[in-house]
Design goal:
The protein is of the alpha+beta class. It has 10 helices and 18 strands. The longest helix is centred in the first third of the chain and has 13 residues.
Length: 305
Amino acid sequence: MTEDVGTSDCVLVVNPESGNGEHVETIRELAAEYGFAVAVSEEAGDPVSLARRAADDGATRIGACGGDGTINEVVRGIDAADAFDRVTLGVIPSGTGNNFAGNVGVEGIEHGFELLAEGETRRIDLGTAGEKLFVNSCICGLTADASGKTSSDLKGRFGPLAYVFSTLETMTDFEAIPLHVHAEDEGVLWDGDAMFVLIGNARSFPAGGGGQGNAEDGKFEVTIIEDAPTNQLVRDATVDRLLGGEVASISRLTTSSLTVDVRREKPVSFSFDGEMASFQSLSCRVRPRTLSVRVGESYRPAPDA
C-alpha cells in the first residue's frame, strides 16, 4: 500500500486498477490542489484497510477513487472502524460503469472533488447480507455471472460495453436458478426458476434499465425475472429489452429484509457492488440511514415522488 497520508481530515483511497488506470495522476494533482491526502492500494482488499486506518487516524472525509467495488471496500473499512457516525464518504468516479456515482449525482472526477470539498451530505441506507455489505445493489443470476466473467482487460478496452458483451455470451449456456424468495416484512413468498434476482439499495431496476433508487426509505427495491419457456430470453431478448419490460414474468416488491434460498446443491454467485461471493442461502437486511455521503445536484432523495 502506497500512502502519503499522515494525520489528515480528508483522505482519498485510490484503486489504480479501476477503469483504464489512467486516473491516478489526475487524482494526485487534484488532491494536491485541494489539500487532500492520498492512499493508493496495491492489491485487492487494500481499500478496506486504508479506509479503516484513515478513519482510525481521525479523517472525517474519505474519498473512494474507483468504481462500485472500490466504494464497497472503502465503506467496509469505515464500518470496520465503527466510524459511520463521524466519517462522510466522497465518490471520485474512476471505474468502468460508475453506477453508484451516477445514482448519487456525481458526474466525474473533478465534480467528485468539488462535492467532497463542500457538497451536500445525505445519510443513506446500507444493505447487509450475512457478513457482506452493499451500497448500490446485490444481484444473483445471469447478470452476476456475466459480471464475474468480465475481465479487467475487457473493461479497459470497451468500458461499460464489456458487461453487455459478457452478458450476451453468458446467456447462451446459462441455466435458470431454482429459488425460494421470502420477503419477511411483506409476507411475500416467491418460488420458481429465475434468470435474475436484482436487489437495489441506491439502484433501481425499472422498465428501461437501471436508475437511482430511493436510498433513504429503509427499503430494498427487488426485481425477480423468471425463466421464460423455450429459451425465449436467449432467443428473443437483448439486455435492454430484458430489463425494459419485454418479459412477461416479472415480480417486483419493496422490503426491508428478504431471504433467497437456492433449491439446488450448487451454490449461486452473488454480486455485491461487483464483489463476488457464492451462497446457498442469503438473508439481506437494510441498515437505515447509516452512511453519510456527498451527493450532487441531480440526486433525488425520493426519486419516485
